[in-house]
Specification:
Blueprint: E1 4-8, H1 11-14, H2 31-36, E2 41-47, H3 54-74, E3 79-81, H4 85-93, E4 97-104, H5 113-121, E5 124-128, H6 152-164, E6 167-169, H7 175-184, E7 190-194, H8 208-216, E8 220-223, H9 227-230, H10 238-252, E9 257-259, H11 280-288, H12 293-313
Parallel strand pairs: 1-2, 2-4, 3-4, 4-5, 5-6, 7-8, 8-9
Amino acid sequence: MIVLDSHCDTPSLMIRGLDVGIDNKDCHVDIPKLEAGGVDASFFALYTSAELTPEAALSRALEMMASIYDALERNSSRIALALSPEDIVSNKAKGLISILMGMENGSPVQKSLPLLRLFHRMGVRYLTLTHNGDNEIADAAMEGKRWGGLSPFGREVVEEMNRLGMIVDVAHASDNTFNDILDCSKAPVLSTHSCCRALADHPRNMTDDMIRRMADKGGVIQINFYPYFLTTTAQASVEDVIRHIDHAVDVGGIEHVGIGTDFDGIEITPEGLENVSKLPVVFDSLSKRGYSDDQIEKIASGNFLRVFREVISRS
């Protein structure tokens, strides 16, 4: 079974000096923790705050990308870059953990499709269109006042991402932005780190209608581990993660649920899931709950990889 985490914010720590090659007590993700957790593939997010200017965001994103490439070079016997599902499979066969890149917040793209294409050429395989603030591409879940959904440029971005074979990530999108994306994307989309609004009423979470609509178009919701998205409080447990997985499966189907921890982007974690080395407890809990090995494999990576392959094949 391949285990894939679709979102961590570890590069934000790497540019401040974190050495991912050693076991660090002050982070959720590093290579020893990935190894201990049996994680085969991890998306490292190039996160930029909505408070940064587009120019500063571009500089920050490039700095994080450079830190990832430096880490890949320093730890080449343990990790390797992956650009496709086939790379993940090949790296696993070689005993290597795959590191992939996503971009969280489209601000570094500014209003330039050539920059979007350049980030794709440099290895970015999904784009989370917004973070917590509206930008030139779209409205965000935590703001949602500028465009009423996707901007005209945002529609061009989605079209170009479809052409490139780049995954559109609806995490952080406002409800109107989500609907606009589903209307105009010709490929399935993902929410790389979200939870279920029916269980925790937070604007960052997805309603049942959103989960159904995304599933109907082949997409996947990757369940986030942030306690406030799980329970709307600072307290959460492994059982709360399982409740959100259960609910998403009930609403969208077993083929449309995965895991996107948001580790190193959250200041608190569920009890029992203090870092990525603890990830096997989720799969153990699912097994005890009656999920089959095939179903667990779909949640662990199969559903994400199916979407990844389809997005590439449609390009």
